[in-house]
Amino acid sequence: MKLTIATALGFVGAASAARTFTVYNACPFTIWPAVFTDLNVGSAVPSVATGWEAPAWSTKTFSVPDNWKAGRIWGRRNCNFATNPGPNSCLDGGCNGGLLCDAHTGTGVPPATLAEFTLGAADGNDWYDVSLVDGYNLPMRITNTGGCHVADCPVDLGPNCPSALKGPFDSSGFPVGCKSDCLVDSNPGNSPSCCSGSHNTPATCPKSGVPHYNYFKSNCPNSYVYAYDESSGTALWTCPASKKPNYTITFCP
Ligand SMILES: *[C@@H]1O[C@H](CO)[C@@H](O)[C@H](O)[C@H]1NC(C)=O
Known about the structure:
Helix content is 10%, strand content 22%. By secondary structure, it is mainly beta. The chain is globular, with a radius of gyration of 19 Å.
């Protein structure tokens, strides 16, 4: 029996190679990174807590299975988990659970810049992007060791954010986020900003229907700005899974 188990583990280890992910906080302030996996899409999860405190200039390195599907990493700002830990413990990006985001419902409260990953997709590529679909809360960059393109939003989109989208604000009045047009839409169920209702296809949800598309895309051309931004050609990035790329996510690059 022992031999059987050892053999089985050895096979699993050889068959599912892992990648190395590094999350670097280059912001001159503490943030609280978070990781979420859509368990409806796949069961593989990174070998790291679903949330942690990252002081300025700190790095965390962890292993991620090379079949990680529908994963996301983001940063939370201005958190205090001492009382009432949950989605409102942070000014933005907070999640159900508090410091540790709930495995099933712990996505970030918008606005939040997201690093999104599907490793080893059906086409043989890793897919990755920096998404502003849920709005913006921190500058971010994804680099890789596979020689593939950088995905990034390197600009602080808070200070110049259009007034209708600006915020939330910290205690000094500084904007720590810039909301998406979808988030402020009064009719999100049938919206050209959210690509919902009668606008739920690429043909019926052009970028021209998103009022502030150009603010986000001109500042962050290599980011994924709205639900059907793939047509821009600079939203969703791929890298051959056969190269086994490692990835670094840098906040405030
Ligand atoms: C990924 O990182 C691991 C561990 O640091 C290293 O052994 C491997 O060579 C790296 N792979 C690539 C493609 O850079």
